[in-house]
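Risk register update: the risk of archive-format incompatibility is retired. Evidence:
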Amino acid sequence: MTWRRPTFRISDGQTVAGAWCLVWRKHDWLDEHYPEHLFVYADGAITLGQYAATDLAGLAKRLASGKITLDRPDAREWPDESSKWESRSPEPRTDEGFLLEVADEITRLAGRPSAGDLLWEAIRCYQRETTETNRSLLRAAYLAVPPHLRVYVLGDMDRQDRPLRILVTDLGESVDGDGPLVTEAMHHDALAYFTARDQDVAQAEERQAVRYADDPAGAPQPPVVLHETTYPGGWPDELGDFALRNDYDAPFTYEGETYPTVVHGYWARSAAGQDDHDRIRAAVTAREAQETGGRAARREDWAAVRLAVMAGLLRAKFGQHQRLAELLTATGEAAILYTGLSDAPFWRDEGPRGGRNWTGRLLELVRSELQAERYTPAARTAETALRAATRTGSQTGENGGA
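Archived output:
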């Protein structure tokens, strides 16, 4: 059974985490079955489709009555395995096993240890102290895993769950009833498997830590959303995030040409002819520049170079306006989401609907470049000298006052 997540529902104003899978539901009037979504939630609620609400006990009754089945009634039946020990297939999925799986999924959604988590805890306990008491606890934890999922519980499809099946079988007993008789050497080898596995995991984690050494640590900052806004009375005197947008009036020079806004520069640079370029640049507003540019003939290589042009325009804008550069770097390491309706989805973020957000991504690039400039050798030297001068001046003032 494949659980799909995440999903949720709202209950009394609270978001309740959920997951869903497919089952087969018998038609109320016809003798046929159709696929149906089975939703389970962290508070134990279960729904079939959108409206048929139940709980674990109600689900058990529906399974027992045949109103819900795990497979199509006419599905092909797999032949019984001749030997459980030699089989490489999971145990057949039964209604009882599925109910265990549903209960375990609800437990996981609620943030409590799942059957797999508890099994690994029992394995660790038995590794630390190989007593019969701990082996009994290990057996109970193993049997609490839904039978059809046990072969997957170790995440090892070569050995599957055989090391566990050996460990939970008493000495002199046959594993699975038709396998080898368990010996002390077999128990020792099974424990050695987990020791070797722990070493492999530790080595893999160490290698990953080296590979991902530069990955940001800690929780990410909330994203900065640059909403499209209009100010009929003119831009406010106090700068805000609106000044980071491409239609903000901040004249700058790029490759020898001066543009009132990034919008003017972008659409003017897209034009195939110089006359169109000049007409777009001279537009009174950014909106007029965009509309004029959208109607002009485009240069042939525009699709290949537009990202580079936009990056250059943004570098020029923030490189030539210190207050805007400070406003941009003040966003820290937060993701920048450039929203609105005036720009194509290629440039803006559209939330769940998509959008490639290239403007936001390029703003993050320029921000990183501005921050890097602060740490060049020359910048560090100047900053150190400024701090020293400030400190000296402060001390002189204090001595003079004394």
